Amino acid sequence: MPRLALATLALLLVACGDDPATSTGDTSGPGPSSGALTTGTGGDDPTGTTTGTSSDPVTTTTGTITTEPGTTTGPATTDAPVTGTTTDPGTTGPDLETDGTTATTEPLPDPICTDPPACAAVAPAATEHHLGLLDGCAFALAPNDFAAGIARADALLARTGTAVDIEAVLGQLNRTGVPGLSAYQADRMKNHDYVGFRWDAGDGAVDYWYPQGITGSSDARADHEIAGKRLLLVSWYHKIELGPNDPPAKGVRLSLVDITDLDAIRYRHLLLVTPTGDGPDVNFVAANTKSGDALHAGGIAWVGDRLYVAETSAGFRVYDMSRIFEATATDDDAAIGIAGGEVNAHSYRYAVPEIGRYALTADSCKFRFSSVALDRSADPPVLVTAEYQTDLTGRLARWPIDLASAALVESGGHVFAHDAAITGQSRTQGAVTYEGVYYMSCSSQAQQWGRLYRNLPDSTSEITAWPDGPEDLYVERDLELIWTAAEHPNKRVTLGIPMQGY
């Protein structure tokens, strides 16, 4: 989208290591190995579907921001972004050339969101099971310098000398999943025609890596497949308690999973990294916050070659799946970066570099990015984000995205939410929209069990049984399956069920 003139912008601102059993790193070999539902927040949930009404709808006023399990709160900071000034995130690399023509004489598009609402208007009281629309103009993001971030990633690949493509990584999947669900989770889902798998023994039990976000090839490509395969990506954050003298966390790893044959699941972990420095001194660190904690990565969305990762207090970090590089040493799970002629990535063989960020603007109302999912069916296509709150006041915001460039759509240098909503549901761990229906993945809704809520604006939610510990959501469009990953050790499953609409 062409940029607005500076005067228009001024007006706008005024108006508005696949490791062994311990699952710590990467060796190059494999690791070890519904009836009707009642509403409300307690009681045993049968496993079918019902309308989410209750005899006494619960109304609550807006609460304070609640920390997601495993995260820390803080100001809306970008946590040391890759680089500084704002530029067009639609660029695809440092070698882009212009055609030498002068500026266009076509009229600039009309600005959007010239009169954003007060923040109090988008933090209203909430009614349980009721989805209410809000003004998306209250929420705005701005990109950092993606061209510089891409140049830095390319300099890193030149220094490591090990750029690889996704097909090469698919040829090196070194872990085996277990078909089907555990008996514990299968009993919960028994009234649904589910599909799914479990991680290998090490990944299923490890207590310091926690799965969170989920996306896949149906997000990344219009034809649903990459290299002729159905793929999932699942993000895990390094969940540890840091002492004052401890080294930083190991950030975020991705599981690249081939689900083409659900009876023969294969996968491999890759590490997300942040490039640092410039030119011949470029290096990299793990995907952590400034405090040294791991980025929570509560949601991910794969769009083209870009991977959007939710950054809880700020917005999105963006990684490039076409710029994967290979470590030269995988025997030291404490080592990260380039030193002594070696490339280390906490013993993982492959790493994915960050290329840019989107952060809430100073004038935007606050928003917590607890999850993200892609809706290709919307017009325009949108990234759907949701807030985790322990009360009913969590909100959704949907951000317009250009599928061709995989960049968010700007107006005057900002990305305004296309629309927003208040969920009327507690503990929203993931959300997506598809063909007009809103889906919300919520944990601890009926004792330990999750629920999948389905709703339309200004309507009452319908409920589907959902596993213990559900997280982010992903829609596999061609099969009309909606997927989630369960996070708790020894209860971990990754599952999909047929979409039911509303």
Automatic annotation (TrEMBL):
Protein name as it appears in the record: Secreted protein
Tree of life domain: Bacteria
Biased composition (Low complexity): 21-39, 46-102
Organism annotation: Nannocystis bainbridge
Region Disordered, residue ranges: 21-110
Signal peptide range in chain numbering: 1-21
UniProtKB keywords: Signal
